């Protein structure tokens, strides 16, 4: 007799990515371990880097974009005096300068202009596209293309440890910030060059390394039984949005993509998350103050 | 807190093998967002250096011993703290008994004992200080480290907007009834757990039966009033929408502070069982009513307000 299909798994599982794995490798592994087709990660972590990689499973993939836009915290080890092709340890050395005279005071002083909103040029070897081609593909073919600078915000940049010529920095930054670029630019500012020699992501949005599980721990768990103890509810990434509580009839309208009239006197904000009469999550929507309605933009299927 | 690989909890420093370590130390009451950043940093650093990680914590919390009359109560019980530390990816957790004798040690004496475990780097919050009159602050610990062969790394305090995240700020928020702020700083709702005891059964007579728990001794108690809460029962089901009264119940007037939780759409006998109550939002302060009808009318309004707060919290994963 055929086994009944296992219940679908939905939610975020926070993986502590091992070194030498690509973020895509982690997604493929989670897909196999959960048996869920819809799996995606929030924010690429370079293969050499370790730490927090939130992975969206099932209906969480519908809102993963809101997590990819979240702030991140890193513990970054930057080695001064050595410049590499990739601004990390992956690429070959292109320049070596004597950094012996560098002091912690000099490193501390150079950090100040990098705090706050800055224009940052992505590394030559990066996954972003210029003219439809990935930068690293162009760079490998020797077609040096300067990616346009991007506006990023570095909320916090603290020198925690200085063991010449290696600095350990705590970096809290916006989406889109390249720590490899930060290493390159700090090295240039000090005139000796630098590369990122170790990177651990401590936080993505609400998830910290303290919340993360290893792939081995996920593999050792029994699914779906252990899922609630391992995964976070998909709505965790939109928890700050106003909540719309719908009765059975309104929930049906929502599921069918129909606009929901706002309660009399209610403030219609630009976005919302919606729940059914039993607290079940129904997805997210946008408010239209002119019409005094809430319109579903992403309807999630019930678990 | 998700279940995962567990760090080992040991009593004191003597059981630890001598191995090169990254050590972090703190009271870690509540294991709030700032603590979690410090722990994550120390774990990440130990990984970068290929060393073991150790979290050292003091129990009781020093202020409970040194200034009990000024201490508002702890954010979470010891076992909760140790479970969170164990789940935070730290390899080992050492619990040191904080006694008046312990407090009389000089920072040098204490750091010699800690250095003997193989300490290479000490990771602390920037406001941390050890010993009487905060003699062992970051600068003093750096001097001691220079002598004993370890480095001291001070991690900046984490802020939420303009607010510094600290255990004392969280305790103050809970005491003021601002459990929503406490939740934001803590990274999860404030929780009271306890065994359900027999109360005055007043609630049942007016259609709002309650599960009454004795607050665990030593925990900070939210300001008197009515709260939207989630109650977790030992039945393994998810959190249930509820509202909780905190106060001295003038009508009953036994003098002791009551914590009475009415769980919506639930009618089971919970006496003798342990329940956990998560505080999400304060709905109003405590009040007296002219008669039972006025009380019931107010409880209906409270229920509607609590359900509106809670509807968004109860989706099951």
Structure characteristics:
heterodimer; A: 303 residues; alpha+beta; Pseudouridine synthase; Archaeosine Trna-guanine Transglycosylase, Chain: A, domain 4; 9-stranded mixed sheet; 5-stranded mixed sheet; 8 helices; 20% helix; B: 317 residues; alpha/beta; Rossmann fold; 14 strands; 26% strand; elongated
In short:
Chain A is of the alpha+beta class. Chain A is built from eight helices and 18 strands.
Structure, described:
The complex is a heterodimer of chains A (303) and B (317). Chain A is of the alpha+beta class. Helix content of chain A is 20%, strand content 34%. In chain A, the strands form 4 sheets. In chain A, strands 1, 2, 3, 4, 7, 10, 11, 12 and 13 form a 9-stranded mixed sheet that branches. Chain A has a 5-stranded mixed sheet with strand order 14-16-17-18-15. The model of chain A has no long low-confidence stretch (mean pLDDT 90). With 317 residues, chain B is of the alpha/beta class. Chain B has 2 domains: 8-160, HUPs (Rossmann fold, 3-Layer(aba) Sandwich); 189-313, Riboflavin kinase-like (Elongation Factor Tu (Ef-tu), domain 3, Beta Barrel). Chain B has 10 helices and 14 strands. Chain B has helices spanning 33-49, 62-66, 78-86, 100-104, 107-115, 138-148, 167-175, 179-186, 202-205, 292-310; strands at 8-11, 21-26, 52-59, 92-97, 119-125, 151-155, 159-160, 163-164, 190-197, 211-213, 225-232, 240-247, 258-263, 274-284. In chain B, strand 2, helix 1 and strand 3 form a beta-alpha-beta unit. In chain B, helix 7 (167-175) runs antiparallel to helix 8. Chain B is elongated and about 75 Å long. The mean pLDDT of chain B is 90. Chain A binds chain B through residues 10-11, 14, 16, 50-51, 73, 75, 77, 156, 158, 160-161, 168, 170, 198, 200, 202-203, 206, 208-214, 217, 226-235, 243, 245, 273, 275, 278-281, 303, and chain B through 1-5, 33, 36-37, 39-41, 43-45, 47-48, 84, 87-89, 121, 151, 153-156, 187, 238, 241, 307-308, 310-317.
């Amino acid at each position: 007799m055929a086994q009944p299909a296992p219940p679908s798994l939905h939610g975020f599982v926070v993986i502590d990515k091992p070194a030498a794995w690509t973020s895509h490798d982690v997604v493929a592994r989670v897909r196999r371990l959960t048996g869920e087709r819809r799996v995606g990660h929030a924010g690429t972590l370079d293969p050499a880097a370790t730490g927090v990689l939130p992975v969206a499973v099932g209906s969480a993939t519908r809102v993963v974009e809101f997590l990819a836009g979240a702030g991140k915290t890193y513990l970054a080890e930057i080695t001064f005096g050595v410049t590499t092709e990739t601004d990390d340890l992956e690429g070959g050395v292109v320049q070596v300068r004597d950094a012996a005279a560098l002091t912690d005071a000099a490193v501390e002083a150079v950090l100040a202009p990098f705090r706050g909103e800055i224009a940052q040029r992505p590394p030559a070897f990066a996954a972003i596209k210029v003219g439809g081609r990935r930068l690293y593909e162009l760079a490998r073919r020797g077609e040096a293309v300067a990616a346009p600078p991007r506006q990023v915000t570095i909320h916090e940049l603290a020198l925690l440890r200085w063991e010449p010529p290696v600095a350990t920095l705590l970096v809290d930054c916006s989406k889109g910030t390249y720590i490899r670029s930060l290493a390159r630019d700090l090295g240039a500012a000090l005139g000796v060059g630098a590369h990122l020699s170790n990177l651990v992501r401590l936080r993505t949005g609400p998830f910290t390394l303290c919340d993360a599980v290893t792939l081995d721990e996920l593999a050792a768990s029994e699914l779906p039984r252990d899922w609630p103890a391992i995964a976070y509810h998909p709505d965790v990434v939109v928890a700050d949005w106003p909540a719309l509580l719908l009765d059975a009839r309104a929930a049906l309208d929502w599921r069918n993509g129909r606009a929901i009239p706002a309660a009399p006197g209610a403030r219609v904000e630009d976005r919302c998350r919606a729940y059914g009469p039993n607290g079940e999550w129904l997805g997210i929507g946008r408010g239209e103050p002119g019409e005094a309605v809430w319109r579903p933009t992403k309807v999630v299927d019930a678990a | 807190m998700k279940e995962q690989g567990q760090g080992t909890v040991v009593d004191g420093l003597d059981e630890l093998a001598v191995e090169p370590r990254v050590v972090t130390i703190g009271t870690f009451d509540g294991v709030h967002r700032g603590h979690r950043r410090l722990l994550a940093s120390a774990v990440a650093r130990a990984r970068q250096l290929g060393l073991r990680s150790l979290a050292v914590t003091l129990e009781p919390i020093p202020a409970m011993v040194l200034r009990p009359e000024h201490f508002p109560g702890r954010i979470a019980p010891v076992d909760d703290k140790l479970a969170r530390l164990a789940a935070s990816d730290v390899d080992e957790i050492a619990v040191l008994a904080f006694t008046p004798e312990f407090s009389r040690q000089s920072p040098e004496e204490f750091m010699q004992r800690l250095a003997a475990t193989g300490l290479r780097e000490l990771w602390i919050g920037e406001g941390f200080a050890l010993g009487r009159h905060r003699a062992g602050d970051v600068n003093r610990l750096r001097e001691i480290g220079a002598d004993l062969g370890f480095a001291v790394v001070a991690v900046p305090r984490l802020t939420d907007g303009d607010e510094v995240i600290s255990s004392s700020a969280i305790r103050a928020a809970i005491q003021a009834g601002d459990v929503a702020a406490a939740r934001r700083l803590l990274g999860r709702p404030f929780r009271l757990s306890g065994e359900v005891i027999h109360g005055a059964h007043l609630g049942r007579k007016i259609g709002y039966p309650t599960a009454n728990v004795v607050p665990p001794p030593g925990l900070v108690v939210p300001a008197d009033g009515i709260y939207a809460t989630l109650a977790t029962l030992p039945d393994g089901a998810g959190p249930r929408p509820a509202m909780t009264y905190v106060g001295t119940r003038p009508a009953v007037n036994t003098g002791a502070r009551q914590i009475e939780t009415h769980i919506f759409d639930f009618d089971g006998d919970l006496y003798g069982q342990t329940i956990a109550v998560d505080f999400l939002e304060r709905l109003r302060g405590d009040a007296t009513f002219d008669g039972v009808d006025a009380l019931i009318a107010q409880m209906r309004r409270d229920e509607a307000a609590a359900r509106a707060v809670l509807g968004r919290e109860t989706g099951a994963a």
